[in-house]
Amino acid sequence: MKILLADLENEVNGLNDIYREIAEKIGIEHTITIYKMFHGTQISFPSRLFSTKYTHKAIINEYNGKNVLQLAQKYDYSERSIWRILKSANNSEEDTYV
Fold first, then answer.
1. Which pLDDT belongs to residue 98?
2. Residue 16 has what DSSP assignment?
3. How far apart are CA 53 and CA 51, in angstroms?
C-alpha cells in the first residue's frame, strides 16, 4: 500500500521521533525526501557544517593583524587554534619561496 503525501500532511504526530523532529523544523515534504534518500542508513553529521580547508582559508583571508579574538568567536575556534592556523599559513607561504 503506497502512502500518499496528501494523506500524511497532518500526520506529523504519527511519525517516529526523529522524523517528527525533522518535520517540525523543515516540513513533512522535505522529511519524506530525506526518508526516501536515507531510510535504513545510519548517518553521522560532522559537528562543523563547512570543511576545515574552507574555514581555514576564510580565517586567513579575514585576518587583519588584530582580530584573532573575533575570528575565534565567529568560527567557534579557540584563539590558540586561530594562531596555529595563521602560523601554518605563514609556514606554507615561506615554503613556496624556498
1. 45
2. -
3. 5
